[in-house]
Amino acid sequence: MQRAVFQPVAVAIFLLSALWLGAKGDISARTIELFLLGLAPLLAGTWIGWRLYGRLDPPGFRRIVLLLLLASGTALILEMLASTPKSG
Questions:
Q1: How far is CA 44 from the centre of its chain?
Q2: What is the phi/psi pair of residue 27, to 5°?
Q3: Cα–Cα distance for residue pair 43/65, rounded to 1 Å
Q4: Which residues make Cβ contacts (< 8 Å) with residue 3, sequence separation at least 6?
Q5: What does pTM read for this prediction?
Q6: Which of 1, 12, 23, 36 has the fewest CB atoms within 10 Å, measured from its CB?
Q7: pLDDT digits over 21-70, tens only?
């Protein structure tokens, strides 16, 4: 049940946030450009998720999500460490 509820709620929150920020004029042309750049990977990931939805049990789904979050967080930390100026 958790998987079935999370995605529509997240999409609704993201959509309302984008509409609110757009109405306030807080979305720049560069932000729109980056959004369009990321749209294809977003749609590909959504499509893969829909294809796998009925094939994974909840613990398997949770394991995959946690591994992806770990990989993403690790990549961000490594990028930050690589871009931090070395003193000395």
A1: 12
A2: -105, 115
A3: 17
A4: 53, 58, 61
A5: 0.54
A6: 1
A7: 989 999 998 998 998 999 899 889 878 877 877 788 888 888 988 999 99
